[in-house]
Write a structure and sequence with these properties.
mainly alpha
């Protein structure tokens, strides 16, 4: 057996030192990351009111920049393309405030007036029909609850109506809110004019020896964020329009409101589908009972889901790798709870950054000596029993 050279550490000691060095280095990086995240979170929490318009403007610029680049590629001046797109977006928002919200207020008021009659017919006609078809007796508590709803003012609809009316009057009558809304397109314009220059300038701050690594991670993050924002926003808007048009043709009360709500909730995975079919089904049963209208609602929901799965998502989102639905839901819940509307704006990009760097940290761990080397001491086989 050859002798171990004098002064050379034993193999086991060398492994232990490498493992200890990896753990210490990882702990240092974890402390630095915790301090950076904590400092940024504190800054966002303190300045969330001031940073919200800037974050909204940046999201608009991020969404519209590919279209601006497309116009530039077709020899359209960038400033003209920005004015055109921002004008279309502003016109859409203004039309929504001036035409859609007042109509929603009228439809909500009309539904609140009709609801006692709907509930009366549901108790006297639909409940006995359900009992006959299913051969069961519904609990008396259900009829009691429905009777209370029938005899009292519908608080939910009244609150919704008051909220919509208050929102419209606030947006049109408060100078401060109007000025705040005007700041967003102005900031978005300046961001769009120099969007590529801003990105290039930030890239110059990265040390040259780290640029390849940093740029690769930025491209990965951009791919994750764009897979949600630029794709899912268009899909959600398309779903909202389809639901609103279809339910209006069927004759559902508050069809536009249901479509808008379902489209907005579609940004949260799976929630928009539940809102669409659940709300439309309840309103349909209350107005028409269990008849062909309910089949039409379910049929239109199935058609929209097929369009989303086979047409909208493949063509708009494509094969880009996005964030897991659970990650999006958790990020939106945490961001909204901590920072309000600002948190909702930055939740998805923050989740993408976390995913990229957590994956990088796991990859570094798997390549480390702590993970990859064989155990320092192999388990010896059980000794043979002594011969007797």
């Amino acid at each position: 057996m050859p002798d171990v050279p004098t002064g050379a550490p034993p193999p086991d000691e060398t492994r232990e030192e490498r493992d200890r060095e990896f753990v210490v280095r990882a702990a240092r990086w974890a402390i630095v990351a915790a301090l950076v995240v904590g400092g940024l979170s504190l800054l966002l929490w303190v300045l969330k009111a001031a940073l919200t318009p800037l974050a909204a403007a940046f999201v608009i610029a991020y969404l519209l920049d590919p279209l601006i680049d497309w116009f530039e590629g077709h020899r359209v001046r960038r400033s003209f393309a920005i004015f055109l797109l921002l004008g279309l977006v502003g016109g859409g928002v203004l039309g929504f405030l001036l035409f859609v919200i007042p109509r929603l207020v009228r439809e909500t008021s009309a539904l609140a007036e009709k609801m006692p009659g709907y509930l009366e017919r549901f108790v006297t006609e639909a409940v006995p029909a359900i009992e006959r078809r299913l051969g069961v007796d519904l609990p008396e508590t259900l009829e009691g609850v429905l009777g209370q709803l029938r005899g009292t003012e519908l608080t939910v609809l009244g609150t919704m109506r008051d909220l919509l009316t208050g929102t419209l009057s606030t947006l049109t009558g408060t100078v401060g809110i109007v000025i705040g809304l005007l700041v967003i397109p102005i900031l978005a314009y300046y961001l769009l004019v120099q969007f590529d220059e801003i990105v290039a300038r930030i890239g110059q701050w990265v040390p040259p020896r780290h640029r390849a690594y940093v740029f690769e991670k930025v491209r990965t993050t951009d791919r994750l964020v764009s897979g949600f924002l630029r794709g899912q926003v268009l899909v959600a808007a398309s779903l909202g329009v389809l639901y609103a048009v279809g339910f209006s043709v069927i004759g559902i009360d508050l069809a536009i409101g249901v479509g808008l709500l379902a489209g907005a909730m579609a940004l949260i995975p799976y929630l928009g589908n539940v809102v669409a079919v659940g709300t439309a089904t309840i309103l349909c049963v209350l107005k028409f009972g269990v008849d062909g209208h309910l089949l039409a609602v379910i049929g239109w929901y199935v058609i929209v889901q097929m369009l989303e799965g086979f047409v909208l998502t493949p063509r708009i989102v494509g094969s880009s790798v996005g964030l897991h639905p659970a990650a999006v839901i958790v990020a939106l819940l945490i961001g909204g709870d901590l920072f309000g509307f600002l948190g909702l704006l930055i939740a998805v990009p923050a989740a993408a950054v976390v995913k990229v760097f957590v994956g990088e940290a796991l990859l570094v761990y798997q390549r480390s000596a702590l993970f990859g080397e064989e155990p320092a001491v192999a388990l010896a086989p059980d000794p043979e029993p002594p011969a007797t």
